[in-house]
Amino acid sequence: MSNYKYIFFDIYGTLAGFYPEREKIQQKILSKNQIYLTEDQISMGYKFADEFMTFQKKTNPLRNLSSIDKKNFFSKYEQKILEANGIFVKDEKSWKIWEQISKEPYDLKIFDDVSENLKWLASKGINSAGITNMDITGEKLLNNLSLGGLLKFIVTSLDTHSEKPDSKIFLFSMEKANVKADESIFIGDQIESDIMGAKNAGMFPILIDRYGYYEDFSDALKIKNLDDLKKIF
After folding, report:
1. Model-level pTM greater than 0.90?
2. CATH architecture assignment, domain 6-17+110-231
3. What are the two backbone dihedrals, phi and then psi, of residue 140, each rounded to the nearest 5 degrees?
4. What is the DSSP letter of 62?
5. Contacts of 207 (CB under 8 A, 6+ apart)
6. Residue 60: what pLDDT?
7. Tens digit of pLDDT for each residue in 2-38?
8. Which among 13, 9, 7 has a CA at the least distance from the CA of 142?
């Protein structure tokens, strides 16, 4: 894969995650509401909730929703987590749970395999950048995650007023990097927003499946973590 000059990375779920982990936060609040699930059960529930989130961002970004619509969305988002585990609650209760979760303090923290592997890619002459649907400027996110020495830049949905899987955000990022699609790889953890979005923009997509959600998926090259990149390049 020597012809590729740039690897673009999704941020949440690919390079960074919540700390404390969102499964721990969810488990803590659910227990207070007499709902008891393991972290693995919650993790699988988040798979379906995140797919619901991707669909929402594709049709109407969260930043454009009214306060009532956001309440309805996050009530349904919480229900997706629970329903994946056979638990069904009314909107009022799911919103109460989500309100409690949203008040829990957390940070976004890069995964342990990020720094070493981004440095390794740089040593191979491969540049790295980020593309994310997060509603924060890329410059601020780059500083918050202390990735300034590892990523050339991050492009966000706030920067471009577009959401993955829309090709606009991918094309904007490639133009910023001054590379063509056939010189670009995109690595992400969501099939529709990341893999299909990158493929439609002409990039080479790689699915990172850190939690084993997509064991049967075979429509793109797949890795378990960033250490697997050393098997490819």
Report:
1. yes
2. 3-Layer(aba) Sandwich (3.40)
3. -65, -40
4. G
5. 187, 188, 189, 191, 194, 195, 214, 217, 220, 221, 222, 223
6. 87
7. 789 999 999 999 999 999 999 999 999 999 999 999 9
8. 9
In the chain, where the domains are located: 6-17+110-231, 21-105
Indicate the burial class of 35 (C-beta count within 10 angstroms; 0-12, 13-18, 19 or more): middle
Q: How many angstroms separate the CA atoms of 9 and 139, rounded?
A: 15
Task: Choose among 150, 163, 88, 79: nearest CA to 121.
Answer: 150
- Residue 136, amino acid: I
Which residues partner with 184 through β-bridges?
6
User: Closest Cα partner for 118 from 221, 201, 110?
Assistant: 110
Q: Which pLDDT does position 152 carry in this prediction?
A: 98
Give CA separation, 158 vs 8, 45, 108, 140, 141, in Å.
17, 27, 18, 11, 11
Tell me the CA distances in angstroms from 16 to 36, 114, 158, one per residue in order: 27, 8, 18
**pLDDT average, residue stretch 29-55:** 96
